[in-house]
Amino acid sequence: PYGCTEQTLNRFLPTVIAQSVLRRLGVDLSTLKNKHPNLNAQELGNDQARQEQWKKYDTNPVFDESLVNEMSKASIIRLSNMQLQDGGWGWFSGYGERSSAHTTAYVVHGLRLARKLGIEVPEGVIKKGANWLTGYQAEQLAQLENLDQSRGKWKRDADDLDAFVYFVLQEEDVVNSRMRELLIRDSDELSVYAKALMGLALDQEGRREQRDAL
Fold first, then answer.
1. Distance between the two ends of the chain, CA-based, in angstroms?
2. In whole numbers, what is the pLDDT of the chain averaged over residues?
Protein backbone atom coordinates (compact mmCIF):
# COMPACT_ATOMS: atom_id res chain seq x y z
CA PRO A 1 0.00 0.00 0.00
CA TYR A 2 2.97 2.35 0.47
CA GLY A 3 4.41 1.80 -2.99
CA CYS A 4 7.96 1.17 -1.82
CA THR A 5 10.46 -0.61 -4.06
CA GLU A 6 10.00 -4.03 -2.49
CA GLN A 7 6.20 -3.87 -2.53
CA THR A 8 6.15 -2.68 -6.14
CA LEU A 9 8.29 -5.61 -7.24
CA ASN A 10 6.46 -8.19 -5.12
CA ARG A 11 3.05 -6.98 -6.25
CA PHE A 12 3.47 -8.19 -9.81
CA LEU A 13 6.41 -10.60 -10.08
CA PRO A 14 4.91 -13.59 -8.18
CA THR A 15 1.73 -13.18 -10.25
CA VAL A 16 3.73 -13.23 -13.48
CA ILE A 17 5.59 -16.36 -12.33
CA ALA A 18 2.32 -18.11 -11.44
CA GLN A 19 0.82 -17.06 -14.77
CA SER A 20 3.80 -18.51 -16.62
CA VAL A 21 3.44 -21.83 -14.78
CA LEU A 22 -0.27 -22.01 -15.59
CA ARG A 23 0.40 -21.34 -19.26
CA ARG A 24 2.90 -24.19 -19.39
CA LEU A 25 0.30 -26.43 -17.76
CA GLY A 26 -2.29 -25.40 -20.33
CA VAL A 27 -4.57 -23.72 -17.74
CA ASP A 28 -5.88 -20.20 -18.33
CA LEU A 29 -6.85 -17.76 -15.59
CA SER A 30 -10.52 -17.52 -16.57
CA THR A 31 -10.93 -21.30 -16.21
CA LEU A 32 -9.16 -21.24 -12.87
CA LYS A 33 -11.53 -18.55 -11.62
CA ASN A 34 -14.45 -21.01 -11.69
CA LYS A 35 -12.56 -23.32 -9.33
CA HIS A 36 -11.50 -20.58 -6.95
CA PRO A 37 -13.63 -21.72 -3.93
CA ASN A 38 -11.95 -25.15 -4.01
CA LEU A 39 -8.33 -24.01 -4.31
CA ASN A 40 -7.47 -24.18 -0.61
CA ALA A 41 -7.35 -27.85 0.34
CA GLN A 42 -6.77 -26.98 4.00
CA GLU A 43 -10.06 -25.08 4.27
CA LEU A 44 -12.80 -27.31 5.63
CA GLY A 45 -16.54 -27.06 5.14
CA ASN A 46 -19.02 -26.60 2.33
CA ASP A 47 -17.47 -24.98 -0.76
CA GLN A 48 -20.51 -22.79 -1.49
CA ALA A 49 -20.58 -21.55 2.08
CA ARG A 50 -16.87 -20.76 1.89
CA GLN A 51 -17.40 -18.83 -1.33
CA GLU A 52 -20.04 -16.66 0.35
CA GLN A 53 -17.65 -16.00 3.22
CA TRP A 54 -14.89 -14.87 0.83
CA LYS A 55 -17.28 -12.34 -0.77
CA LYS A 56 -17.00 -10.28 2.40
CA TYR A 57 -13.48 -9.24 1.40
CA ASP A 58 -12.61 -6.63 -1.21
CA THR A 59 -9.41 -8.33 -2.35
CA ASN A 60 -9.39 -11.41 -4.54
CA PRO A 61 -6.82 -13.30 -6.59
CA VAL A 62 -6.31 -11.90 -10.09
CA PHE A 63 -7.94 -14.07 -12.76
CA ASP A 64 -7.92 -11.53 -15.60
CA GLU A 65 -4.90 -11.88 -17.90
CA SER A 66 -5.29 -8.35 -19.27
CA LEU A 67 -5.27 -7.01 -15.70
CA VAL A 68 -2.08 -8.96 -14.96
CA ASN A 69 -0.47 -7.42 -18.04
CA GLU A 70 -1.56 -3.91 -17.03
CA MET A 71 -0.31 -4.47 -13.49
CA SER A 72 3.04 -5.68 -14.79
CA LYS A 73 3.45 -2.74 -17.15
CA ALA A 74 2.59 -0.20 -14.44
CA SER A 75 4.98 -1.85 -11.98
CA ILE A 76 7.86 -1.89 -14.47
CA ILE A 77 7.32 1.79 -15.21
CA ARG A 78 7.24 2.62 -11.50
CA LEU A 79 10.40 0.63 -10.76
CA SER A 80 12.19 2.28 -13.68
CA ASN A 81 11.17 5.71 -12.38
CA MET A 82 12.30 4.79 -8.87
CA GLN A 83 15.83 3.97 -10.06
CA LEU A 84 18.21 6.56 -8.62
CA GLN A 85 20.67 8.55 -10.70
CA ASP A 86 23.58 6.34 -9.66
CA GLY A 87 21.76 3.27 -11.04
CA GLY A 88 20.73 1.70 -7.74
CA TRP A 89 17.47 1.54 -5.81
CA GLY A 90 16.64 2.58 -2.27
CA TRP A 91 13.57 1.78 -0.20
CA PHE A 92 11.69 4.59 -1.95
CA SER A 93 12.97 7.23 -4.35
CA GLY A 94 13.39 10.97 -4.49
CA TYR A 95 15.41 13.58 -2.65
CA GLY A 96 17.73 12.19 0.02
CA GLU A 97 17.22 8.55 -0.93
CA ARG A 98 20.34 6.37 -1.07
CA SER A 99 20.91 3.20 -3.02
CA SER A 100 20.86 -0.02 -1.02
CA ALA A 101 22.88 -3.06 -2.08
CA HIS A 102 20.21 -5.51 -0.96
CA THR A 103 17.33 -3.61 -2.57
CA THR A 104 19.27 -3.07 -5.79
CA ALA A 105 20.27 -6.73 -6.03
CA TYR A 106 16.67 -7.72 -5.31
CA VAL A 107 15.29 -5.48 -8.08
CA VAL A 108 17.93 -6.44 -10.66
CA HIS A 109 17.25 -10.13 -10.03
CA GLY A 110 13.48 -9.56 -10.16
CA LEU A 111 13.54 -7.49 -13.35
CA ARG A 112 15.81 -10.02 -15.01
CA LEU A 113 13.38 -12.80 -14.12
CA ALA A 114 10.43 -10.74 -15.37
CA ARG A 115 12.20 -10.14 -18.68
CA LYS A 116 12.91 -13.86 -18.96
CA LEU A 117 9.17 -14.50 -18.55
CA GLY A 118 8.35 -12.16 -21.43
CA ILE A 119 7.80 -8.85 -19.61
CA GLU A 120 9.28 -5.87 -21.45
CA VAL A 121 11.85 -3.99 -19.34
CA PRO A 122 13.14 -0.59 -20.57
CA GLU A 123 16.58 -0.71 -22.16
CA GLY A 124 19.45 -0.06 -19.79
CA VAL A 125 17.55 -0.31 -16.49
CA ILE A 126 18.98 -3.71 -15.51
CA LYS A 127 22.43 -2.82 -16.84
CA LYS A 128 22.60 0.36 -14.78
CA GLY A 129 21.60 -1.58 -11.69
CA ALA A 130 24.24 -4.22 -12.37
CA ASN A 131 26.86 -1.50 -12.81
CA TRP A 132 25.96 -0.06 -9.39
CA LEU A 133 26.29 -3.52 -7.85
CA THR A 134 29.69 -3.97 -9.52
CA GLY A 135 30.90 -0.79 -7.86
CA TYR A 136 29.50 -1.88 -4.51
CA GLN A 137 31.21 -5.26 -4.84
CA ALA A 138 34.54 -3.56 -5.58
CA GLU A 139 34.17 -1.45 -2.41
CA GLN A 140 33.45 -4.52 -0.30
CA LEU A 141 36.41 -6.35 -1.80
CA ALA A 142 38.67 -3.42 -0.93
CA GLN A 143 37.45 -3.57 2.69
CA LEU A 144 38.11 -7.32 2.82
CA GLU A 145 41.63 -6.82 1.51
CA ASN A 146 42.28 -4.01 3.98
CA LEU A 147 42.82 -5.93 7.22
CA ASP A 148 44.73 -3.06 8.80
CA GLN A 149 42.10 -1.27 10.90
CA SER A 150 44.22 1.88 10.98
CA ARG A 151 43.88 2.41 7.23
CA GLY A 152 40.17 3.16 6.94
CA LYS A 153 37.20 0.89 6.27
CA TRP A 154 37.74 -2.85 6.60
CA LYS A 155 35.87 -6.05 7.35
CA ARG A 156 37.08 -9.49 8.31
CA ASP A 157 34.75 -11.86 6.44
CA ALA A 158 32.72 -11.94 3.25
CA ASP A 159 29.06 -11.91 4.33
CA ASP A 160 25.56 -12.88 3.19
CA LEU A 161 25.04 -9.65 1.27
CA ASP A 162 28.29 -10.24 -0.62
CA ALA A 163 26.96 -13.67 -1.59
CA PHE A 164 23.63 -12.22 -2.77
CA VAL A 165 25.35 -9.54 -4.86
CA TYR A 166 27.75 -12.12 -6.32
CA PHE A 167 24.80 -14.35 -7.26
CA VAL A 168 22.92 -11.51 -8.98
CA LEU A 169 25.99 -10.24 -10.85
CA GLN A 170 26.80 -13.77 -11.98
CA GLU A 171 23.35 -13.87 -13.60
CA GLU A 172 24.50 -10.87 -15.63
CA ASP A 173 27.79 -12.63 -16.50
CA VAL A 174 29.78 -10.31 -14.24
CA VAL A 175 32.11 -12.48 -12.13
CA ASN A 176 34.75 -11.23 -9.72
CA SER A 177 37.08 -14.19 -9.16
CA ARG A 178 38.68 -12.68 -6.05
CA MET A 179 35.31 -12.14 -4.36
CA ARG A 180 34.44 -15.73 -5.22
CA GLU A 181 37.63 -16.92 -3.52
CA LEU A 182 36.85 -14.96 -0.37
CA LEU A 183 33.23 -16.12 -0.25
CA ILE A 184 34.38 -19.74 -0.50
CA ARG A 185 37.06 -19.07 2.12
CA ASP A 186 34.51 -17.58 4.51
CA SER A 187 31.66 -19.95 3.66
CA ASP A 188 31.48 -21.22 7.25
CA GLU A 189 30.34 -17.73 8.26
CA LEU A 190 27.53 -17.62 5.68
CA SER A 191 23.90 -18.46 6.38
CA VAL A 192 22.40 -21.53 4.72
CA TYR A 193 20.49 -19.26 2.33
CA ALA A 194 23.65 -17.44 1.27
CA LYS A 195 25.43 -20.76 0.76
CA ALA A 196 22.55 -21.85 -1.46
CA LEU A 197 22.92 -18.69 -3.57
CA MET A 198 26.64 -19.33 -3.92
CA GLY A 199 25.94 -22.95 -4.85
CA LEU A 200 23.63 -21.80 -7.64
CA ALA A 201 26.20 -19.29 -8.87
CA LEU A 202 29.01 -21.86 -8.85
CA ASP A 203 26.79 -24.32 -10.69
CA GLN A 204 26.13 -21.75 -13.43
CA GLU A 205 29.87 -21.15 -13.71
CA GLY A 206 30.46 -24.88 -14.15
CA ARG A 207 32.47 -25.09 -10.93
CA ARG A 208 30.98 -28.40 -9.83
CA GLU A 209 33.73 -29.36 -7.37
CA GLN A 210 33.50 -26.06 -5.47
CA ARG A 211 29.71 -26.25 -5.59
CA ASP A 212 29.69 -29.73 -4.08
CA ALA A 213 32.25 -28.80 -1.42
CA LEU A 214 30.09 -25.85 -0.41
1. 40
2. 90
